[in-house]
Amino acid sequence: MQGTISISFTENYKLILNIKVGVDMKTDGKKLGKQTVKLENPPKIISAYSIVGPKEGDGPLRECFDQILNDDTCGKDSFEKAESEMMFTAITEALSRAKLKETDIDYLFAGDLLNQIISSSFAAREFSIPFFGLYGACSTMSESLSLASIIMDAGCAKYVVAATSSHFSSAERQFRFPLEYGSQRCGTCQWTVTGSGAMVLGHEGNFPEVTYITTGKVKDYGQKDPNNMGAAMVPAAVDTLVSHFKDTGRKPSDYDIIATGDLGKVGKELADKLIQEYGYDIRANHMDCGEAIFNGQLQKTDAGGSGCGCSAVVFTGYLYKKLMRKEIKSVLLVSTGALMSPTSSLQGETIPGIAHAVAIEMK
Amino acid sequence: MQGTISISFTENYKLILNIKVGVDMKTDGKKLGKQTVKLENPPKIISAYSIVGPKEGDGPLRECFDQILNDDTCGKDSFEKAESEMMFTAITEALSRAKLKETDIDYLFAGDLLNQIISSSFAAREFSIPFFGLYGACSTMSESLSLASIIMDAGCAKYVVAATSSHFSSAERQFRFPLEYGSQRCGTCQWTVTGSGAMVLGHEGNFPEVTYITTGKVKDYGQKDPNNMGAAMVPAAVDTLVSHFKDTGRKPSDYDIIATGDLGKVGKELADKLIQEYGYDIRANHMDCGEAIFNGQLQKTDAGGSGCGCSAVVFTGYLYKKLMRKEIKSVLLVSTGALMSPTSSLQGETIPGIAHAVAIEMK
C-alpha cells in the first residue's frame, strides 16, 4: 500500500491539497471487484447521432431519431455498402454536432455484425482517424463506449468517437437467408435493426458522463436455437448486471433506466426472472432497446429488434436526449451480444453471450 | 497547464519527491503527435506462448515455437474448432508460465480472422475472464497488445492477456476455396499461418516492456487483387511507421528489429521502397514475419505466411525469446491487416489496410 500527498496549483496559482491512501494507482487503482472500473476523469458524451431505416422510423421511438431514411439502400448498390454509408453519416454528423473536424479526433472505435466488420472498416477508411476495430456482436455499442472511455480516462486522448451499425438486409443475408427466399419467422425471432449510432467523447462541458464500466465474460447456458437469441444472451446480461451491482455497491434503483440491448420481449422477461435469483429486482426500471424500438404486433417484429444498431440508436436517439434534457439522471446501458456464427451453429455449437455495462450519468 | 508536486511514502516510510510539469494529464498527456501514445507505466510482457501447425514447425523458426502440432485438427471435428482449441492452449500455457490462474486476470483481448471471430469467442468462453473481442484482420496481434497495454497503463488492471489465432484451413475455406477444390495459387499469394500466440502483461519483474503504441489509420491505395494482400497492406504499414518515427522522434536504427506482420516477400520489398520516399530507410533491420516463418521455395508458400497467427507466433516464439535472452533490446512490432471480406471483394471494392505499431523494449 502507498500513501500520496499531492499539492497542485492551477494557472491561477490556487493551491489544491489532495491526500490519497489506497492501492497503488499504478496497478489497478481504478478496479472495483472483478469486472468493474471506476473512471477517475469521467469522459463526457459531447455529441451523439442516430440514423435509422424506414421501419425503425415507423416505430414507437420515431420522434427521437436524428435521421430516418426513406430508402434503406442509401442509394448504394448493396446492403453492405448502405450499412457502411449509414455509419459514415452517423460519424460525420456526430462530429458536426460536436463542432469538431476529423483531425481533432484521436481514435475511432467501431464494429458491426458483418463478416470482417466491413461496414466499420470501410467507414473508417473515409476518415483520417486512428482506428480500433471491434467485434462484440450486438454488444458492440457498449463495448465500443467502454474502450473509448477507458482510453480517454487514461490520458491518451482529447476526443474519441465510438460507433456501430447494423442493417436488416445485410444481416439476414449473412446469418439466415436472402430476403427473396421468403423464409418463415417464429415468435422468438428478432428483427435486426437498420441503424447506426455514433458518439463523440470529450473532457469538457455539461454533458452526460461515463462513470463506471463493467466488462462482461462470455456466458453459455447451452442454448442452441439461433431463432431465440434473446434467451441465449440472458445469462450474460444477468451476470454482468449482478457483477456491476456487487462491484459498485449500487442497487438497480440507483439508475433511472437500466437499458439492455436486445434481449427482446422473450429475453427481457427471462432476465427479470433470473436476476431475482441473485437478489436483484430490475422490473421497475428495466427497458430493453429491442423491445422498445418496434411495435411488435403492428410491425410484425416478433420478439423485437436486435443488432448492434439497436442499442446504438436507442441510446443516441432516445436515452441520450432524455439525459441532456435532464428528464433522467442516469442510465446503465447494457448492450448484449450473441457470439455465434452460421458456421458455429451448423457445427452444432451452442450460442454463448456477452454483455458490457456502461453507467452514464448527468451531473 | 498544471504543475504537480507529489510527495509519496512507501511502506518503509521512504520519502519520494516527484515534480511534474506539463500538459494536464487529464486530457491527453500521454499523446505524442497524432497517432502515438507514450506509456507512463510501461506494462511488461511477463510470459508468452506460441503454438503452431506442422508446416510452421517445419520452417526456419521451428526451434523457437513452444509447441508444434502433429495434427492441425487438434483432434477436433472441424478446423474452426481446432483453431479455437489452439488459442485456448496458448492462453492456458501463457497463464501457466506466468504462474497465474484465470481468476488473476483482469481482461482478455483477442480476435481472429473467422466470421464473428468465433475462434476467440469460443476460447474466451472457456475462461472466466472479462473479454473484449477485436477485429483487425492480420493486424490483430498488435491491436490486441495495444489495447491490453493501454488498459494496464491506465491503472485498470494488474494482469491482462492478449491473444490471437489463425488456421490455414479455416481461412482457406472462408476466404477462398475449400481445400478439396485444389485451386491454383500464384506467386503473390500468401499462406495463412496455423498458429496462436498469447501474452500475459503484468507490472512487475524484469521483462520486455511495452513503451510506445502507434495506432494505424485505414489506408487504401486502390489495390483490388485478393491474391496480393501484401501489396494492399504496404501503404498502411508505411503510414504507421512514418507516423511512429515522426511522433516519437526516433529513427529506424533505434530498434534492433522492425517486424512487420505479413507483408510477405512482395510486400516487404514494396514497403522498403515506399518508405524511402518519406526519408526513412528500414532495410538494415526490417524483418517481415510472413517472410520469416516459411522457407518460400522449399515449402511452396509463395510470398510467405499471413494471418493473425503469423506475427503472433513469430513474436511470442522468436522475438520475445531474443528479447528475454537480451540478444536484442528492442522490437517495433507492426502487425498488418487487410480489411476486406469475400463479400466486399466480390462487390468490386478495393482492399484497405491497417497496421498498428507497438514498441517493445528490454531495459
UniProtKB/TrEMBL annotation, chains A, B:
InterPro entries: SpoVAD, SpoVAD_sf, Thiolase-like. GO terms for molecular function: acyltransferase activity. It holds the Pfam family SpoVAD. It comes from the Bacteria. This is Stage V sporulation protein AD. It comes from Clostridium uliginosum.
